[in-house]
Structures are given as C-alpha cells and as structure tokens.
Amino acid sequence: MKARTWLAGLAAGAVALTLAAPNAIGAPTATPAPKPSVRQLDTPAGGGAGIVTKRDAIGRAHSLRPTTPLKAPKSVSARAAKAATSRPDSAAVAKAQVDAVAPYFGARPADLVATGTSMSEYGSQTRFQQTIDGVQVYGGEIVTNLDKAGSLESANGEVALATYGTFPAADKADAAKATALQSALAAVAKQGKLDASKLKAELTGPRWFDMGLVTRQPGSVAIPVYLYEVTGPNDVRWQAMVHASGQALLAWDLSEKINRVVCDANHAIIQTGGEDVRCGDGQAFAPSRVEGGPASDVQDVNQVFDFFGDTSDTYKSLGTDLTSLIGVDYGDGKGKAIRGTVRICVDGGCPYANAFWNGEQMAFGEGVSTDDVTGHELTHGVTQHTSGLAYLWEAGAINESLSDIMGEFVDLTNGSADDTAENRWQIGEGSSLGVIRSMSDPTKFGDPDKLSSPNWFDDAFFQDNGGVHFNSGVGNKTAYLIADGGAFNGQKMLGIGLARSEVLWHETQKVLTTGADYGDLAEGLRATCDKLAKKKKSGMTKKDCAQVELAIKATELDAEPAGGLPAQAPVCDTAGAKVKNLLKTSFTEYPDGKVVRDQGWVLGKAEGVDGSLVDTSYSKDGDDSMFGMVTAPDQAIGIQTANGTKIKNQKTYLRFQHAYNFYNVFIIFGVRSGTGTLEYSDNGGATWQDSSTLTGWTNGPTVDPNFEDEPGAWHGNSGGWETSRLDVTSFQGKQLKFRWTLHGKDADLVPANWWLDNASIYTCSK
Length: 766
Known about the structure:
alpha+beta, 10-stranded mixed β-sheet, 34 strands, 24% strand
C-alpha cells in the first residue's frame, strides 16, 4: 500500500459505464453492471482565473482566493451592510456567496447547509456541510471567509461528486443499524485488541463517505455508511465506520493521547475515561478548586488550574472565549466551565502516564500537568469545535500539529521558569520523560520536517491512524520557521514573531475542513495571511506573508508526501540507448487499430465529454488514458493488444503506465474492490497465460500477503501513476499478444478502477 491510500473513485462527471465498446474481446466475458450504480451529483466548472487557486486532478476546486474580494450579491446587499455585527446576516450573506462559487467545487447549492458562523474583528467564517438526500457527507465541507462588508475573501473545502449505493429502505433500517453496531464493536475490538464485551457503541449518524475527501486519491464517489462512537474501559474512545450493508470498513482511535509523565498510585481507578472522570458536584469527582475559590493543597490541582488560565489567556488574546467554545455544564451550579480531573489511574496502569481530552473535559495522570501538554490537549477541544479535522491521515497530522503549535505558544508566552533558549520549541520539557518532540528539528525524534523527508510515515497498516503523530512534524517545522525564521531546504526566512504567528495559526484553524491535507493547510495559511495583512490591527504585513510563503516552500506543503510514492521503471537500463517502438499507444482515440476492449473500458475525455456519460479526465500526460471500472464481485473486463508482435531481438520490453485503487485501509477488515492482471498469448489468443510468474518484471504483479493463496496481481493502491515493465526477450521468435484484465472482488461495496496509459512494446540498443 502507498501513502496516498485510494478508495475506488470516479473522475469528474462519472455516471455509469454504459458506453458500448466496439470490437469487444469476448474473453473474459463482461457482465452487465448490477445495482448499485454510480450516481453523478455535479461536475466542477472550469475557468475561474483570478479566483481559483487550487484544483485537484479531476478539476475540483479546493481553494478560492479572489484577486479582488467578491462583493456580496445584490440579493443580500442589505444584509451585507449588517454582516459585521449580526451573525444571522453574516451567515445569510455567506450562503449567497457560497452558492455563487459552488460550481467551482462541483457542489450543488441546495446541498450546502450552514452549520456555524464564527465572527471576529477580522470578519467572519461560515462553515457549510454538504448533504446528499439529507445525509451529511463526511468531510464534505466548504468554509467561506468574508470581510466585514460581506465580500468573499476566500473559500476552502471539497465535496463529493458522486454516490455509489444506497441506504436501506425505512422498513429495513433498524435491522441494518443493529447489524452495523455489532460490526462496529467487532472492528474496534479487532483493531484495538480490546474485549468487545466491554465496549459500547453509539450511532453518530448515517454518513456518505468519500475517501477522496480525506486522502489524496483522485476521483470522487461516496458510499453509504453508519458512523459509530465506541467507548470502553481505560479511556477507550474510537470511531468506526460500517458500510450500510453491515461490512466494517474503518476504525480509528480518538483518544489523542500524549505519553509524557509518570503518575503515582494515589488516585481512584477510572474505567471508561468518560463519565467516570467527570469533574463537578454530583459527578464522579468533586471540585477541589473553582473560579474565585482558594488554592488546593494538591500541587497538580493548582498547576492544572493555572495552566487552564494560561491557555485561556492565550485564546482570549486571539479573540476566542475558550470557556464558551469548549466548556461544559454538568448542571452542578458551576455553569459552563473548562474542567479537568487530575491524578487519575487506570486498571493496570498506575501511575497513569498520560493526559487526554475526552470530548468534553480533560483528564491527567499524576504530574502530567505541564503548560504545553495542557495547551495541546485543550486545543484538541478547539479543533473539535472549529475545523473538526479528522483524526486520520494528513488531517490528523495537522490536528496534532495545531495542538503542538498552540500548546507551545502557551508555553512560550506564559512566563514560566523553563522558557529558556534551550527549551524553545521543545515539547515535554519539565516532565519526567523529558522532551519528546522538537518543533525546530523534528528529525531529532524521527519525524519528518518536510513532505519529501524520508521520515514521512507511510502508515500502510494503519498503526498511527495514517501517521497522525509522526507526520505532524511537517506542520511543527512550518510553525517554527514562520515564527523564528532560519535557513532550511534552500529557503531563508526572517520570521514574523510569536504574536503575529499566534493570530495566523488561530485564524487559519477556522478555514480548514475535516479532510484537509498539507496542501490545503498551505492555502489556508496564504488566505489567512492575505486577510490579516489588510487589517492594520493584526500587525501583519505583505512582507510577513512573503516570509510565510518561504516557509511553505521550505517544508514543501504543496508537494506530495515522499513516503509510498509509486515506483517507476526505466525505459532502458543503459543510458543513451536507442529505442525502437514496435507498438505504441497513448490512448488518444478509439478504435486505434492497436487495442480492443471489453465493455467497461473507455477512453478519457475523448469519449467522456461528448455524451458517453463517462468522463475519466484523470490522465498521465494530457493525452487521455484508458479507464476501466467493475462494480460486481467476480466481474472481469479486459483490454488487449489487437495484433501479435514478433519478438526478434534482445532487450525487448513491454512497458506501460497505470494507476489503480483496489483497496485501502479497509483491507484491515478483509475488503478489497478488485485486482489487476496481465496475461500473454503466444498462439494468437487461443490460450492465455498469467504473467505474474515471469522473471522479467520491474514493478510487476505480486502476491498479496493478505491473500497468499491467490496468484500474483496488482493489488492495493498504486498511490498515483506507476510504471511497470516486462522484459520479453525470452520469447524471441514468438508472436505475443497481451491482455490487461480488471477483476472485481468486493466491488459491490466499492467500485474498482484501473487507469492505463502510454503502453508500448519496444527494443533498446546501443
């Protein structure tokens, strides 16, 4: 598996593979695509010069930053005049603005529902949730950023473009949810190595889930799922996603822990990390210190109380009331408050070497109450109530990084005795475990400091929710460079200081969406800095934004992660070798006399734009590509060379570029959408042989370790365009034909896709 875990998805405009293919091969036999089918929602609009600043491979906008802010539409001009002080008016103007730019994202305005508006002295941000048939799309969001006059300064986000499958009918929904609940419990027990009998699952709701919104895969198709929150003893807090059919797809840990300090054994043992750590009158633990009350005789109580105040002061200076945003009221007469319970222990874990945010309050083991830890964990609460960054993949890494960043800002500005030059940008100083991360040099602890770093964690087996802790180093290094400057990766930065950095990162948090990756973070930083530079009170200048841009370049936020990039095969093994093509096609037209295909394989734009109901615009080089999709288990579709090629010389090769997404982290639960194989025939197509056992492969088919009883194939996800090459010299004197076959596996849950481009048979000579 590669870093860019792909879910099988369709490119812009995909509806259904109904195009009749001329010259069908006849073997293997293609079966009609069954239900479920792909349903197109919308297609991203082109254009947008001077407005759109980031698009993905299928033309879907992720970021808009108009050269000149877009004035509020005339229909809401009266409300725009009140947008600076009225939240309802600001939200109404934002809705009109998002409706106007929705086509760039590929969104239907009617599907965008406002979920909240944040207002500050710099303007307002309104978050819009994408819904399909009234059901939320996980990670499908657009955030508008308006100035006080209601003009659109930027918009960020992405939405699903198609669906695949349906939710159960009303009379079968309860039974489906009951099955899904048991699957969620089993999935968390399996992934977390927990006792399922001690877990409890609560339905968060039905969701449409498009992996393209939380990973870097191309294409977009949302599948129907049920989302559950699963809790259990010893601070177990997970989420699980189950297909509407009952198949568990994904489970991930939400505990957001930082193991830093050692606790004693003088506290009660908690079981769930939920209600049994609640702090309040009539709750699990009675208050030891309250606002305006006397100090406690317990050092940890006073430290946490003070660090809550330090963190609250930091956010207050940024215009955010932390108590109002993340506080909780347990009905004990204390009102809405930031609450925490200290010196907890767990069964088999005392002293408890941890601290965590459980979704409503904090809990600490003995001695864990350092200022950066407290700021870190409370910022998880801020993230929960603002951007809602998923605790998965790059979004999770940004989530962790934001907590480190804001926690360090608290640490560096609260006047604590350990704010020395040596401790600057170190995480965990003052704890019994010592420093555990360096923001100024993440590589000291094996974390990446840029997207191309060899330390990037390609979390193929989902050990760290896709690398949320390890890969946070990239965001941390970016924050250090923005604030303090320095020379790194060919860039020299002056730094903009802590005060402006605090405002920049806090305001950027507000414009990120659930599935944001580092490229989206880069756009968020740019848009926010531009906005702040127009506001004199912020202290930000255009020169500061130039320094932010240098930091983005230094840590390569706009690049692809190095870990898991697809492999490439050379054309020839000898530099300067001459290439003679015996067959070559880049799939610019069909029929081309070079290949024939089964129904289910189509060209990209050449066929997709003009009424074929398919637009597979994902292409390697702009010459289009051949695209195949299967939607049923055991379905197989092929594309083969039309004529045999005589192999006469040494160093004769078959080489092609391809991209595939046959499964992703779902493999943890035995789900894969398909596989790809290459067969050859030396008798004109009368019989076909599997090529996986041949010895001449570079990046060829391999045996899937999860399915060792099956022959070699391309499986999992390529992570982008991969190049494979087969040395066919051993077939000298024979006439060869080749056939690429896409096989369905669990394609009734998730469609399987394979892109093929630039195929050639050629010789290399001196």
